[in-house]
Design goal:
The protein is an alpha/beta fold. It is built from 17 helices and 24 strands. Among the domains are: 305 residues, Vaccinia Virus protein VP39 (Rossmann fold); 67 residues, no CATH class; 33 residues, no CATH class. The two termini are 38 Å apart.
Length: 659
């Protein structure tokens, strides 16, 4: 016959009640004994947290500030408000409904010990006061039930408290040992003992009242970590009204969305360092709306259906490409576009289009390094004191060493006169067969040029409609003379020239006008094939071509990342599920309407499933103690040897360290 024993638990610094919810779910057993967990209350300074606590634990919560006066001033920087008073042991008793708990669970504020806070800031008066709140809370609890001590005390915090808060832990340990407790410290991963989808390493201090609890405390079984998708994959996509207001994507800056899209799955911001950036822009990637321009430059998957086959099926005006998975194994691949044939391999067939883009028309010639003079003559400049190479038919600098470093040039005696301009009084150089400006000084600075009517000013000149034309020559190019006219008639002819006026090139038809005949070559540059559509302002964002947002503009975006997925932040409901505060099939409602406040309380919470694992083994230890047993054969390991000692061994010196 199973005997039911009630195990009462109380929570200091209870937050939203994650620990209390987990303790309530525990069902410890020891032989024919079964424990039934009941929460008798909780204390916290946050009214919203207490409202959540009552909702999740089913017990009454109490809003109490546990600071003493000096700590309050150090933390807040001002005197307490009127009506504020320091908490007393009687306040703790009232918060527990006048009952005595068997287990007290504390998850004190940890900001002062967090690695997210710098060492310098952690030593300020504000955070030292916050750290001291833990010690004061334990003292108040011990005083509240000093006549009938609590059997087990569990203190949970961040791992860094073991180093940054060493002095505080030593004071807490001394206080507990003075009250008759054996104390031990250890650490655990909430994810492993709670089978969560997150790794959450925490510090744990366990105190056992030596006269009341002699049995061992066994370690909760480790069940490994679950994947994120296994948990939040059961939710609908963010933004679905069925999931409620907590399942919405936070508005992030546009540049943050872009960064998230380029972070590789499983990596962090450091993977962005592999991207090539030039002038603040990604050099190898562009960003465009998914449905922009009917899928311009789009590539269809092998299993997808193609779009409509139109008369103009080019990659730049639609999705007219396909990702063909057969390519790596096909003969086409073996044809080796841009392929280089090894020197000891046979060449491919010599075709009429024998160029590197057509097939394997290159060879890896190992002899290049065997000849000291190989490829050394391209654009080579021969020293003035060196012999020249052989003079060949193609004696240009691009074909060999057909340039010389002529040291005489610097003397000033040599003046080739390339592009030289002679002054009006100078004599010209010798008249040779080649007389272009690039071959010598074959230009003259003519002082006679002016802006008189007789001056030569006909280059690109436009004749007025009322003027006489210049002489008609054999060359009819505008660059050769005044061969253009400013014709005033197009603007004044009205409808008589409407079919001639540019043929309507790049013309835009008004919305209430009629179109011309639809021709086979209907393009924007050969007629009026555009329309001024007044509906542009009325269509939704999905139907318009969106412009890229400003870098700091906050919005919710869906950017398909490089791996084809949506790299998005967790919603508040996702975080609650990862903390095991809610199952995807359950409904969760927290106090208030602020995502930031919700997230802070969720992040501070003890995962209920991890708390259930802890409560199960502690409840079993209590059942063994109440049944008079001090040992139980178990396949589970003892929960860290110092804890086993603390929970099972009576020290010779009651004031000594039982570890």
């Amino acid at each position: 016959m199973t005997h039911i024993h009630e195990i009462r638990h109380f929570h200091l610094f209870c937050g939203l009640g994650g620990g209390a919810k987990g303790f309530n779910k525990a069902t410890p057993r020891a032989g024919k004994l079964e424990g039934r967990m009941r929460c008798i209350g909780g204390i916290d300074v946050d009214p919203a947290g207490i409202a959540d606590f009552e909702r999740l634990s089913g017990a009454k919560g109490t809003v109490v500030d546990l600071f003493d006066r000096d700590q309050y001033i150090a933390f807040h920087g001002h005197e307490p408000p009127a009506g504020w008073r320091e908490a007393t042991p009687e306040d703790i008793q009232r918060a527990a409904g006048g009952e005595r708990p068997h287990i007290v669970f504390l998850s004190a504020p940890c900001k002062g010990f967090s690695g997210l806070l710098s060492e310098k800031r952690s030593t300020t008066a504000k955070y030292q006061a916050l750290n001291g709140l833990t010690l004061r809370g334990i003292w108040l609890m011990l005083e509240a039930w000093k006549d009938d001590p609590v059997e087990l005390i569990v203190f949970e915090n961040v791992p860094r408290i073991g180093t940054r808060g060493r002095a505080l832990l030593d004071r807490i340990g001394a206080l507990l040992r003075h009250a008759g407790y054996a104390v031990a410290e250890t650490a655990h991963d909430c994810g492993e003992i709670g089978n969560l989808g997150q790794s959450r390493k925490r510090f744990l201090l366990v105190a056992r009242h030596m006269e009341k609890v002699p049995p061992f405390l066994y370690e909760p079984p480790k069940r490994g970590l679950r994947s994120v998708g296994e948990i939040i994959g059961r939710f609908p996509l963010p933004g679905d009204p069925a999931a409620g207001p907590m399942h919405r994507i936070p508005q992030l800056q546009w540049k943050t969305w872009v960064r998230l899209a380029f972070v590789e799955a499983g990596k962090d911001w450091r993977s962005l360092q592999r991207l090539r950036v030039q002038d603040g822009m990604l050099a190898d990637y562009g960003i465009m709306p998914e449905e922009w321009h009917a899928g311009a430059l789009g590539v269809h998957g092998w299993q997808e259906t193609a779009g409509v086959v139109a008369s103009r099926c080019g990659p730049t005006n639609g999705a007219y490409s396909i990702a063909d998975p057969r390519m790596p194994h096909s003969a086409l691949r073996q044809n080796g576009i841009y392929r280089v044939v090894a020197f000891d391999q046979a060449a491919q067939a010599v075709t009429g289009a024998a160029h590197v883009a057509g097939a394997a028309m290159s060879v890896a010639d190992p002899r290049a390094t065997e000849r000291a003079d190989y490829k050394q003559n391209k654009y080579r400049v021969t020293g003035m004191d060196e012999p020249a190479g052989a003079v060949i038919a193609a004696s240009t600098t691009g074909n060999g060493a057909f340039a010389v470093a002529d040291m005489r040039f610097a003397s000033g005696d040599y003046d080739a006169g390339q592009y030289g301009v002679r002054s009006w009084e100078e004599s010209t150089g010798a008249v040779i067969g080649v007389k272009s400006p690039g071959q010598g000084g074959f230009s003259v600075a003519d002082p006679r040029f002016d802006w008189s009517p007789t001056a030569h000013r006909n280059k690109m000149k436009v004749i007025g409609y009322g003027e006489a034309a210049s002489t008609v020559t054999g060359s009819d190019r505008v660059g050769s003379g005044a061969l253009s006219v400013a014709d005033p008639r197009p603007a004044g002819w009205g409808d008589s020239r409407k079919h001639f006026d540019g043929g309507g090139h790049y013309g835009v038809i008004p919305w209430d006008g009629s179109s011309g005949a639809v021709a086979s070559a209907s393009n924007i540059d050969n007629g009026r094939w555009s329309v001024a559509d007044p509906r542009a302002d009325a269509v939704g964002a999905a139907d318009a071509i969106p412009a890229l947002p400003a870098p700091d503009q906050r919005l919710v975006a869906v950017i398909r990342a490089l791996d084809g997925t949506w790299h998005r932040p967790f919603t508040t409901l996702d975080l609650a599920a990862l903390q095991s505060l809610v199952c995807p099939e359950e409904h969760l409602e927290l106090e208030g309407l602020s995502d930031s406040a919700w997230r802070e309380r969720i992040g501070n919470a003890v995962p209920p499933d991890a708390a259930t694992a802890i409560a199960t083994v502690m409840g079993r230890t209590l059942l063994l103690a109440w049944s008079g047993q001090s040992f139980m054969l178990s396949a589970e390991p003892i929960w860290v040897r110092p804890i086993a000692t603390a929970l099972a061994v009576q020290p010779h010196n009651p004031e000594g360290d039982a570890r």
